[in-house]
Amino acid sequence: MRQVFLDTETTGLSAQAGDRIVEVGCIEFDNRRPTGRRLHHYVNPQRSSHPDALRVHGITDAFLADKPLFAAIAEELRAFVAGAEVIIHNAAFDLGFLDAEFARAGLERFAGQASLITDSLLMARERFPGKSNSLDALCKRLEVDHSGRDLHGALLDAGLLAEVYLRLTRGQDSLVIDAAEGGARALRNPACDLRRFALPVLQASAQELAEHEALLVDLDKASSGKTVWRQAAGA
């Protein structure tokens, strides 16, 4: 299955108030493996970033001045995600901006280009209720190296999201690792005949038997004589 991990950076928090996308980054996976295909663009938003947004991504007006408008890269983005499952962290936020930019470019809503939109934030909230589930917090919790993330960047964050998603959907403590990922072929070993092993039988000591009997007496008192082990021994 083809998947695209996507992130954007914006001039502010509200697409409805006219904030625009300044950067978009996408990384393609197929059957949970990176294909090497990426899409990354800085775009001229034709407005300044809010100071708070600038502190997050550090992308200045001067840097963006000679970059293409979103309309110039919209078709390339549409083709890149077409038919894929698109995974976004806090998808409602990015989709609001993408839909607004696609509308300006005369294209259908962004979600209509993908086969499925998956919000990794909702997945994380189900797995870790009551905890912080920002991308930074998930990287720390799932031991994804994000030491190079001093500022947010769309392509960098898309890569971190891919690693977080893989760990969210498989888990490091899983006993069955997907063989398609080159992992161990768990549960595929041939059956082993245990009769060829001599298993030692350890007898309880007198002290252990006395402690066990004392525990059964206490259970008898607590259960009004309904201790299962007593009943089984008398059967």
Can you tell me about this structure?
The protein is α/β, with parallel strands linked by helices and 235 residues long. The chain folds into two domains: 2-181, 2-Layer Sandwich (Nucleotidyltransferase, domain 5); 203-234. 40% of the residues lie in helices and 16% in strands. It contains nine helices and five strands, in the order βββαααβαβααααα. The protein has helices spanning 51-57, 61-64, 70-81, 91-104, 120-127, 135-141, 154-170, 206-223, 228-234, and strands at 2-10, 21-30, 33-42, 85-88, 116-119. The protein has a five-stranded mixed β-sheet. A hairpin with a 2-residue loop joins strand 2 (21-30) and strand 3. The longest helix is centred in the C-terminal third of the chain and has 18 residues, at 206-223. The radius of gyration is 28 Å and the shape is elongated.
What is the first-to-last residue Cα distance? 58 Å
Question: What is the total tally of β strands?
Answer: 5
Strand content: 15-25%
Order of helical and strand elements = EEEHHHEHEHHHHH
Please sum up the structure shown.
This protein is an alpha/beta fold. The protein has helices at 51-57, 61-64, 70-81, 91-104, 120-127, 135-141, 154-170, 206-223, 228-234, and strands spanning 2-10, 21-30, 33-42, 85-88, 116-119. Strands 3-2-1-4-5 form a 5-stranded mixed β-sheet.
